[in-house]
Amino acid sequence: MRIDKTKAQRKRLPPFSFQWHITDECDLRCRHCYLYAEDPDRVPIRMSWPDMCTVLDNCLTFCRDFGSSPVFYLTGGDPLLHPDFWRLAERLHQLGIPFVILGNPFHLNTLVSLRLRYLGCIRYQMSIDGLEATHDALRMPGAYRETMKKIAILNRAGITSAVMTTVSSLNASELPEIIDAVVEARTGQFSFARYCPTGPDKSVGITPEEYRELLRRCRERILAHLDAGCRTRFDKKDHLWTLLDFEEGRFVLPDDTPPNVIRDGCHCGSSHLTILPNGNVLACRRIPDSRVGNALTESFRHIWLGPMQAYRDSGRFERCAGCRLLAWCRGCPAVAAGTHGSFYSPDPQCWHVVN
Fold this sequence. Notes:
ten-stranded mixed beta sheet; 34% helix
């Protein structure tokens, strides 16, 4: 299937993102991994090439019908381990569709990075989950230095190097210093989000008051770097930033915000879906039991207008439904689900009292 729109036309369309897990294969078994949290000995699976073609056509048909521009986040496991990864990248290149990779540093080198850039990879995201000792304990020995080394390789290839930190009580105290480290490494983009409790661990381990103070400390550190001429882009991925900005006057509610119309915050139900290697479609990757269909046997149109409707029912949020910031925040429903068992439960790190 070919797309009959120019690049300029696609840029004007609202984006719709597909987090596409083409394989479970990975060099790591991280302590907070969603794939192996409840079954560390699971046998990894990968999507076949014919199935990848079916899924791609399904995605493109959906975006064409709904007037959206597809954004593919290729991930796994490590997507570079899939034997047909380059075949898929070539196909996206032929269609003129840029893509992002969420992966590991271990199979990156200069030649791989240059090839990725040529085929349309615009960003490559890796993880730093603490200073060296903490990160390596969570992932594997040597992972920290390997990640930092590959930031420079991506930068030289013209791909935006991105670092993501998963925050919990294990590394929260190190977060300001992680910001220093990624700035020093000249990372193109940095963001962090809270650990989504899985398996036997049902808590992020941070109180609401502690998290608000952590955000404040991070903001001070980020502003100091920006004032010093830092060129790293800091992405406020956690939606509780909106609450902090609102409280301190940096975010003002527009006067024309209609009730129950979602403007920002969690993209689940508005512009995002996850596809697993077996074709299963999840409303959110961070909620393992959020299956809403299968991309190999059902159209995304059917999934989006059917089972996904429940994730757009903002009035069901137990506490957020009564909050002035409902349209702009809602915290993280995945962290709420991991902690309390329901997508609509209160965010456990939200400190806001709804009157």
